[in-house]
Amino acid sequence: MSLRQRHLLGIEPLAPDEITALLDLAERYVVLNRSGRKHTDVLAGLTQINMFFEPSTRTQASFELAGQRLGADVLTMQVAQSSVRKGETLIDTALTLNAMHPDLLVVRHPSSGAVNLLAEKVTCAVLNAGDGRHEHPTQALLDALTIRRAKGRLHRLTVAICGDIAHSRVARSNLILLNRMESRVRLVGPATLMPAGAADLGCEIFEDMRAGLAGADVVMMLRLQKERMDGGFVPSMREYYHRFGLDAEKLARAHPDAIVMHPGPMNRGVEIDGLLADDIRRSVIQEQVEMGVAVRMAAMELLADNLRAARAG
Fold this sequence. Notes:
Mean pLDDT: 92
Radius of gyration: 19 Å
Low-confidence stretches: none
Oligomer: single chain
Structural class: alpha/beta
Helix content: 25-40%
Largest sheet: 5 strands, parallel
Strand content: 5-15%
């Protein structure tokens, strides 16, 4: 199992065989994480630095736990108290971090492309934990693992990604991955929350949620990212829920065994009905959280293998 990239900055550079290899390795870590042992020494002697320029609960905790279970020395930088808040540039931050000789650097940043810029300035492997509206590769990979475990495959599925598409790096990464694995993707939401050129992304566009969910195998809901909105994208939360919030009546249009997903955090009663989110017969939201640790363990192992090979050769 291997990745051909030095970093994991997005889904775009990954070939189908690399995606499959990473998911196959993650399956092994699912088994390990469910065992009484939970720890390995795959990253023993290596240092992992997590730097989150945006607030995060699930992703940050997941990366921390993944590194610890692999045996790495894990340090999470408190950006709110760091020199970044005092005016230090991203490049200066990268040079400072590089002087500490980390092996793995996990970065979340509000600006698209910032993680790629940082990766050019360091000698370690960089993992993108989400940058602006660009990509969130490990989220797409954990979603893929969740889907594959529930459906037994990733190809020839109909996946409806619903909600705030325009502001979602999760939607972009999932769209790239699912297209690459030969599934059919539908983007469902109001025109005001569709990105420019959405019709050219290799997917179908629906402004009617019931039509968009018809026959879907997977329904992936997205959070309304109000913090990224600077105008009237929706008339009201109540109207949005009426038209685009997932409830039992709308879900009935999907395939009878369709699964419900959400990357979190959820706005219950806005994009999804709370009872449906907790329905263990349809919802795999908690499984997504579990798969996140396994996928991040797999990604870090494969990048560490590349790093060791480069240093040895």
